Amino acid sequence: MQKIAFLGLGNMGSPMAINLVKNKHDVSGFDLSKDAMSNFEKAGGKTTKTALDACRDAEVVITMLPSGKHVAELLTREFIGSLKPGTLIIESSTIDPATAKAVASLAEEHDCFMIDAPVSGGTAGAQNATLTFIVGGKEDALKKATPYLSCMGKNIFHAGPSGAGQMTKICNNLLLSVLMVGTSEAINLGIANGLDPKVLSEIMQKSSGRNWALEVYNPCPGVMEGTPASREYAGGFAVDLMTKDLGLAMEASLASKTATPLGNMAFNFYRIWGEAGNGKLDFSSIIRFLNHKKEQSK
Ligand code: NAD
């Protein structure tokens, strides 16, 4: 049993931390949101009053925060300096590679280990411990982290040095956004032309349009049970978080002078949809943005 501090108990962090508890680790959780803390306690977790309290004597610190700004504000030089030497930091939020590298350098200065380990697989993956971890950092840090990552996920990939996990995750989410927009477009077109979205989705799943959104995350209500679409797009992966990830992709695209026209279009769709008051909805709700005629008649 290891003492683990888990900071950030939102849609992803809470079920991930509970999976560590289920594997008999001694987990202390902390979140700035009282609701997140009480949901974690209801699920069987233990909480502390501050992030530092959770980290006291911890061998491992895991962070699952909204963005790079939150990570940089929490994992400061002073905060990392207060950890035990040899502490392993697993930073699992999706953030910019530059912040991941800066935190890894701070950790190294204080004789701690740090990996960037963003995840793929959504809230269902977090609940079922089937996440994919995309790791950037040194081999020895990844080796130390593997027993903990295995409690929360099924696939662990070493993408490269510090920051490479984040860059890989950013590329993945750019592709995911394009797939979700494309899937939504095709389903809307089918419905508008008299097709049953369930039948259409089943056929496309076995045809050349097959993709992850169709297989496990259908954006159309009534097609697939257990998806955010089947519960009014509550929970899941927020539009605001997808907009943040696409913003990171656009920054990387500008910095490396790489053409990403479809990602750029998806970024604008998500940004406009979020700014129209839909930022907390799951990102599959983009099907409603594209179905603008139906939205306006509401
Ligand atoms: P969330 O907003 O549900 O949870 C983030 C939590 O962090 C919130 O409860 C917030 O109060 C807390 N927080 C912020 N600052 C804090 C601090 N200083 N100390 C402690 N807690 C703090 O977000 P989420 O959906 O759980 O996503 C977390 C990260 O995982 C994001 O970077 C996101 O991009 C990434 N991600 C999410 C999904 C998904 O399906 N939701 C999938 C893959 C990756």
Topology:
Layout: E1 3-7, H1 13-22, E2 26-30, H2 34-42, E3 46-47, H3 51-55, E4 60-63, H4 68-74, H5 77-81, E5 88-91, H6 97-109, E6 113-116, E7 119-120, H7 122-128, E8 131-136, H8 139-152, E9 153-160, H9 164-192, H10 197-205, H11 212-216, H12 239-255, H13 261-278, H14 286-290, H15 292-296
Parallel strand pairs: 1-2, 1-4, 2-3, 4-5, 5-6, 8-9
Antiparallel strand pairs: 7-8
Helix pairs in contact: 1-7, 9-12, 9-13, 12-13
Nicotinamide-adenine-dinucleotide is lined by residues 7-13, 30-33, 36, 51, 64-66, 70, 74, 93-94, 119, 122-123, 236-237, 241, 245.
Task: Jot down its keywords.
alpha/beta; N-(1-d-carboxylethyl)-l-norvaline Dehydrogenase, domain 2; Rossmann fold; six-stranded parallel β-sheet
Describe the structure.
There is one protein chain. This protein is an alpha/beta fold. The protein folds into two domains: 3-161, Rossmann fold, CATH 3.40.50.720; 167-296, N-(1-d-carboxylethyl)-l-norvaline Dehydrogenase, domain 2. It is built from 15 helices and nine strands. The protein has helices at 13-22, 34-42, 51-55, 68-74, 77-81, 97-109, 122-128, 139-152, 164-192, 197-205, 212-216, 239-255, 261-278, 286-290, 292-296, and strands spanning 3-7, 26-30, 46-47, 60-63, 88-91, 113-116, 119-120, 131-136, 153-160. The strands form two sheets. Strands 3-2-1-4-5-6 form a six-stranded parallel sheet, sandwiched between helices. It has a three-stranded mixed sheet with strand order 7-8-9. Helix 1 links the parallel strand 1 and strand 2 (26-30). Helix 1 (13-22) packs parallel to helix 7 and helix 9 packs across helix 12 (239-255). The model has no long low-confidence stretch (mean pLDDT 96). It binds nicotinamide-adenine-dinucleotide. Nicotinamide-adenine-dinucleotide binds next to helix 4, helix 7 and helix 12. Nicotinamide-adenine-dinucleotide is lined by residues 7-13, 30-33, 36, 51, 64-66, 70, 74, 93-94, 119, 122-123, 236-237, 241, 245.
